[in-house]
Design brief:
Blueprint lengths: L11 H6 L6 E5 L3 H7 L5 E4 L3 H4 L11 H14 L4 E5 L8 H14 L4 E5 L5 H9 L4 E6 L5 H4 L13 H16 L3 E5 L3 H10 L4 E4 L7 E4 L1 H4 L17 H18 L10
Parallel strand pairs: 1-2, 1-8, 2-3, 3-4, 4-5, 5-6, 6-7, 7-8
GO molecular function, one term: 3-methyl-2-oxobutanoate hydroxymethyltransferase activity
Pathway: Cofactor biosynthesis; (R)-pantothenate biosynthesis; (R)-pantoate from 3-methyl-2-oxobutanoate: step 1/2
Pfam families: Pantoate_transf (PF02548)
């Protein structure tokens, strides 16, 4: 199979059917330019609230708001014609099931996103049920939940004590409850590989990992991590496929030098 699939838009049903059949690829994007670049290759594009850190320069995701998410999702949808676009529901936008429904409806009405993602396990099951009942496709998110970073005192890996631990049982209960509520896939973040593998085997919906090992149904990375643009720190689970920041810095130095020395623009580049 070619990594460049046909131009027909990827659907929720297609993602669901990839379970145990084909690895799912997901990358974040926040604008039309990069969405258009990624679109021919990946199955899903996530407009993550991670934009608050990599795009806006904040220390965590918590100050991202719904209007920001809608703005960036509109842009991504303008660039992505094939990939399934998922919009994160930001911190504070799902306080109750009715609040979550109101937020998700606003996203659906104002963008062309095919799904929303929300963080949480058993505590958001009623939210997911209500969204699905109202025609909104949902991606769950369990394990390390960035929206709880202040409550938990940092980004903490889950499942370190293995599949016999209470933490594993909680993760399993969360995953099964999210599946039963109607989510079509689940993002599993920052979970030990052995626990992630067991969870993936025990649920019927695809598990998309980030920092959760290889034995899941797919992977998601933040684009600025994967391509070397975010330089503040590099998580252990990130593989850099490009030294993006270094390449850009070299290019901008060349541009500045050409301008200051009069090499740019040339006669051929002038009217």
């Amino acid at each position: 199979m070619s990594i460049q699939n046909n131009l027909k838009q990827v659907t929720v049903t297609q993602i669901f059917k990839k379970k145990n059949q084909e690895k799912i690829t997901m990358i974040t994007a926040y604008d039309a330019l990069f969405a258009k670049i990624f679109d021919p290759f990946v199955d899903m594009i996530l407009v993550g609230d991670s934009l608050n850190m990599s795009f806006f320069g904040e220390q965590d995701t918590l100050s991202a708001n719904l209007d920001q998410m809608i703005y960036h999702t509109k842009a991504v949808c303008n660039g992505a014609k094939r990939s399934l676009v998922v919009c994160d529901l930001p911190f504070g936008s799902i306080k109750t099931p009715k609040t979550a429904l109101k937020s998700a409806i606003k996203i659906y009405k104002q963008t062309k996103a095919q799904a929303v993602k929300l963080e949480g396990g058993l505590e958001v099951v009623e939210h997911i049920k209500l969204l699905v009942q109202n025609g909104i496709a949902v991606v769950g998110h369990i394990g390390l939940k960035p929206q709880l970073v202040r409550l938990e005192g940092g980004y903490k890996i889950k499942g370190k004590e293995g599949i016999k631990s209470k933490e594993f049982q909680k993760l399993l209960e969360d995953a099964q409850a999210i599946e039963e509520a109607g989510a079509f896939c689940i993002v599993l973040e920052g979970v030990s590989s052995s626990v992630a593998k067991e969870l993936t085997q025990r649920v019927k919906v695809p598990i998309i990992g980030i920092g959760s090992g290889v034995d899941v149904d797919g992977q998601v990375l933040v684009w600025s991590d994967a391509f070397g643009f975010f330089q503040e720190f590099k998580p252990k689970f990130v593989r850099e496929y490009l030294k993006g920041a270094n390449l850009m810095q070299e290019a901008i130095k060349n541009y500045v030098e050409d301008v200051k020395t009069g090499r740019f623009p040339s006669k051929e580049e002038s009217y």
